[in-house]
Amino acid sequence: MSVLQPALELSGVEYSYRQNAALRGVTLQVSPGEVVAVTGASGCGKSTLLHCAAGILSPDAGTVRVAGQDLAALPEDQRARLRRTKVGIVLQFGQLVPDLPLIDNVALPLLLDGHERGEAHESALDWLKQVGVADEADAVPAELSGGQTQRAAVARALITGPSVVLADEPTGSLDSKAGQELLEVLLRASRYRGSALVMVTHDNLIAASADREIRLRDGVIQHEVAL
Ligand SMILES: Nc1ncnc2c1ncn2[C@@H]1O[C@H](COP(=O)(O)OP(=O)(O)OP(=O)(O)O)[C@@H](O)[C@H]1O
């Protein structure tokens, strides 16, 4: 019998910054369309977990699989392509390119992947519509509010149709109304598209919107709660 392949699979992942063990054997599977909140006290390893899952950091031990592919087993060019096309990342402050209008920021992952400019822009505009900032397509990030730039960051993370969306405190820089709206955009997009969504958060309301909460303590999973 075939079972659904996890969108993201961490197995025995360990990571240390010099002598400081940030992750001490984390095993976690996230299914397509599933929403997981990663919680825990400051310094427990939440961001490190997300960065290992994204392939930004390479674990000292253990494996990370995205859409069934072991990141460490791939040659560098294939790993970079997998990360570009199958992983979408949203950070606390969006991390858009300051000099580029929103439409170019959102189109960037497709352009880097060799898509034709007109097609990439058409898709970017479509995504800007879906997240509610199409009227701001020609504005640069400095001309916009935090909520508007975060929406564009979500569009940029989703434009490639990733298997996994990783969000590190995505609403952390927003007031509660803008934060709630952005959360809804992320949840809708992930559920509609079937991407797994893993969100690091300190916010209990955001955690409550997930299907499952993973609580970390000192670099290990302290407990998991199905919500
Ligand atoms: N670049 C770094 N160099 C050295 N130590 C680091 C670095 N980044 C994180 N750490 C340490 O690794 C541990 C885990 O940090 P991490 O940022 O993953 O935790 P976190 O749960 O995301 O914290 P917060 O909620 O405050 O963002 C902490 O002890 C932290 O001090």
From TrEMBL:
<dbReference type="GO" id="GO:0005524">
    <property type="term" value="F:ATP binding"/>
</dbReference>
<feature type="domain" description="ABC transporter">
    <location>
        <begin position="8"/>
        <end position="227"/>
    </location>
</feature>
<dbReference type="InterPro" id="IPR003593">
    <property type="entry name" value="AAA+_ATPase"/>
</dbReference>
<protein>
    <submittedName>
        <fullName>Putative ABC transport system ATP-binding protein</fullName>
    </submittedName>
</protein>
<keyword id="KW-0813">Transport</keyword>
<dbReference type="InterPro" id="IPR017911">
    <property type="entry name" value="MacB-like_ATP-bd"/>
</dbReference>
<keyword id="KW-0067">ATP-binding</keyword>
<keyword id="KW-0547">Nucleotide-binding</keyword>
<dbReference type="Pfam" id="PF00005">
    <property type="entry name" value="ABC_tran"/>
</dbReference>
<dbReference type="InterPro" id="IPR027417">
    <property type="entry name" value="P-loop_NTPase"/>
</dbReference>
<dbReference type="GO" id="GO:0022857">
    <property type="term" value="F:transmembrane transporter activity"/>
</dbReference>
<dbReference type="InterPro" id="IPR015854">
    <property type="entry name" value="ABC_transpr_LolD-like"/>
</dbReference>
<dbReference type="GO" id="GO:0016887">
    <property type="term" value="F:ATP hydrolysis activity"/>
</dbReference>
<dbReference type="InterPro" id="IPR003439">
    <property type="entry name" value="ABC_transporter-like_ATP-bd"/>
</dbReference>
<dbReference type="GO" id="GO:0005886">
    <property type="term" value="C:plasma membrane"/>
</dbReference>
